[in-house]
Amino acid sequence: MLDTMLGNYFPILLFILVGLLVGTLCLVAGWLLAPNKPDAEKLSTYECGFGAFEDARMKFDVRYYLIAILFILFDLEIAFLFPWAVALKEVGLFGFVAMLVFLGLLVVGFIYEWAKGALEWD
Amino acid sequence: MDFLLPDFTPAYPEIFLLFMICVVMLADLFAGEKNRLLSFYLSLLTLAGCAFITYGIYSTEVRYTFSGMFVGDAMSDTLKLMIYLTVAAVLIYSRAYISLRGLLKGEFFSLTLFATLGMMVMVSASHLITLYLGIELLSLSLYAMVALQRESAVATEAAIKFFVLGALASGFLLYGMSMLYGATGTLHISELTKSIQQGTADHDIFVVGLVFVVAGISFKLSAVPFHMWAPDVYEGAPTAITLFIGSAPKLAAFGFVMRLLVEGLGELATDWQGMLVLLSVASMAVGNFVAIAQLNIKRMLAYSTISHVGFVLLGFIAIGENGYSSAMFYVIAYVLMTLGAFGIIMLLSREGFEADKISDFKGLNQRSPWLAFMMLLIMFSMAGVPPMIGFYAKLAVFQAVLEAGYVWLVVVAVVLALIGAFYYLRIIKFMYFDAPEDTRPILFKPDVRILISTNGLAIVLLGIFPQALMGLSLSAIQHSM
C-alpha cells in the first residue's frame, strides 16, 4: 500500500527535478556564456532614463498596509462565497443561514472600520 | 448530501457572547465620547448573561456537538464560570486605571470579550483544530491589547516580543499536531486516545509530535525554558492588561493541557511525565531565584507566575483524578491571588505614576492599613503560609505527587517554595516596617473597595474551608474523564 502511495507522487518528484535542472541550467549558462563588461552607468538604478532621485528602499506609509489588510479580508470573503453559491442547492437552508451569519459578522466588522475612519486616507 | 442541524445547546454561551461582542462594538461606535462607560456596563452584563446561560446548561453529562469538534462537560462549564468571574473582576479593577490613561476605549472591551471567547473555545474543544482556533483567538486579542497604548515604546516592544514568540509557539504546536495527525489520521481528541490504545500508530512519530506539543504548551503557560516573553510582557503592558494576561488565560491554559495531554494523549503519560518533571523543576527554580533580584513588582510577579506554573505542572505529573483536581485548585487559587496583587498595584497608581517599583510599597500600612492588610494576605498566600488558600493549594499538589511516588520532587518543590517566600515577605517588610516615600492619599471608588475586600476574604476563607472548591474541582474532573 505504501509503495502505491509513494508511486502516486513520482510525477511530482520528476517535475521538481526537471524544474530544478532547467532553472539551474539557464542561470549557469547565462553566467558562463554571456559577455560581461560592467561600467558605472550600467550598474546604476534605471529610472526612466534619468539619474536615480533617491534610494528605492524607502519607508512606505503604514496606511498602505491597512488598505492591503482590509482588501485581503474582503477578497477572502469572495473566495468563500463562490463555492457556496455553486453548492447552494446542496447545502440547503442550513448552509444558507450559516453563510448569512458569516456575512453578518463581516458587516459588523465593515461598519466598525468605516465608522473608525479606516477607509479614509486622511 | 444532507446537512443535519447540530445541537447548539453546549455552545449557547459562546453564541451569546459572540452576538454581544458585536453589540458592544457597534454600541461603542455610536455612543460617543461621553458614554464610554456604556461599553463597560454592557461587557459586565454580557459576562453575567454568559454565566447565567452556562449555569443553565450545566450538567455532569459529556455532550459532543458540531460533528464532535466541540464538547460541553462539567470541567468546561466550571472553568467557563471561573473565567467569567475573573474577567468581570479584571474589568472592575481596571476601570479607573484605564480611564486615567486614555485606554477607556471600545477596543479594550471588545478585545477582552474576544479573548474570553477564545478561552471558552479552548476549554470546550474536542478537536485539535478547535483547540488551535481558541488559542489563536485568545493570543491575537492579547497581542493587540498589549499594544493598545500606541504611544508607549515599552508597550509596543512588549507586544512585538509577545507576538513573535507567540507565533513561534503556535508554529511548534501546529507542527506537533500535524505529527499526531500523521501518526493517527485523526484530529479528534477522543479518537487520538483510541488509536494509541489500539497500538496501530508508530510510537516514535507520536513522541516527536508530543515533544513539539509540550513545547507549544510550555510557551503558552510560560514554563521555563519557554518563559522569556513573560517578564517583558508583564512589565511593558499597561497594568490592567497585565492583570488580564496573568489571570483568566491561565484557567484556559489549564483546560487546554487537560484536553490535549490528558484526554488526547493520556495513554502516553509515561512519555510526557518526564518532560513535565523537567519543566516543572526548572520553572520553580528559575522563577523563584530570579524573582529575588527584581526591583519592578510587575516583573517580580511575572517570575512568581513562572514558579506557580511549575507547581501547577506538579499536579499533572501526579496523574489521576487527585493530581488533576489539585492542579485545577492551584490554578484557581493562583488566579485569585494574581487578581488581588495586580488590583492593588493599580489602586496605588494614579495619573502619570505607575506604582510598579517594589519601593512604592514602602510604608503602605501608614497610608492605607486596609490595603496593606489585603496585600499581606495575598503575599502570605503566594508564599504558601497557612491558613491562606495558597498553602492549601500547595499542600494538595504535594499530596498528589507524594501518592504518585515522587518523594524527591516534593522535597525539591518545598525547598524552592521556601526560597520563594523571601521576596514575598520582603514586600510585607516594606509595607509594615519602612517609612513611606510618598504620602499622597490613595483614592479609590467603593466598588473597588468591596471587590478587593471580597478578594482578600476569599483568599482566607477558601484557605480555611477548601473543601467546597476542592470538591468542585474534583467533581469537574471526575465527570469529564
Word description of this protein:
The complex is a heterodimer of chains A (122) and B (481). Chain A folds into 2 domains: 2-43; 62-116, no CATH class. In chain A, 73% of the residues lie in helices and 0% in strands. Chain A has helices at 2-8, 10-33, 40-43, 62-86, 88-116. The relative contact order of chain A is 0.05. Chain B has one domain. Helix content of chain B is 76%, strand content 1%. In chain B, a hairpin with a 4-residue loop joins strand 1 (63-65) and strand 2. In chain B, 56% of the residues are buried. The model of chain B has no long low-confidence stretch (mean pLDDT 91). Classes of the chains: A mainly alpha (122), B mainly alpha (481). Chain A binds chain B through residues 90-92, 94-95, 104-105, 108, 111-112, 115-116, and chain B through 1-3, 5, 18, 22, 25-26, 29-30. Chain A: This is NADH-quinone oxidoreductase subunit A. Chain A: Its main location: membrane. Chain A: It is found in: Cell membrane; Membrane.
Number of helices, where a helix is a run of at least 4 consecutive DSSP H or I residues of chain B? 20
The chain-level mean pLDDT of chain A equals 85
Class from secondary-structure proportions of chain B: mainly alpha
Based on CA atoms alone, the radius of gyration of chain B comes out at 22 Å
**How does the major sheet of chain B shape up?**
2 strands, antiparallel
Average pLDDT for all residues of chain B: 91
* Structural domain count of chain B: 1
Shape of chain B: globular
Tell me what portion of residues of chain B adopts beta-strand conformation: under 5%
**How far is it from the N-terminal to the C-terminal residue of chain B, by CA?**
34 Å
Oligomer: heterodimer
What's the order of the H and E elements of chain A?
Answer: HHHHH
Main β sheet profile of chain A = none
Distance between the termini of chain A: 62 Å
How much helix, percentage-wise, in residues of chain A? over 70%
Enzyme class (chain A): translocase
Subcellular location (chain A): Cell membrane; Membrane
Subunit structure (chain A): NDH-1 is composed of 14 different subunits. Subunits NuoA, H, J, K, L, M, N constitute the membrane sector of the complex.
Membrane topology (chain A): Multi-pass membrane protein
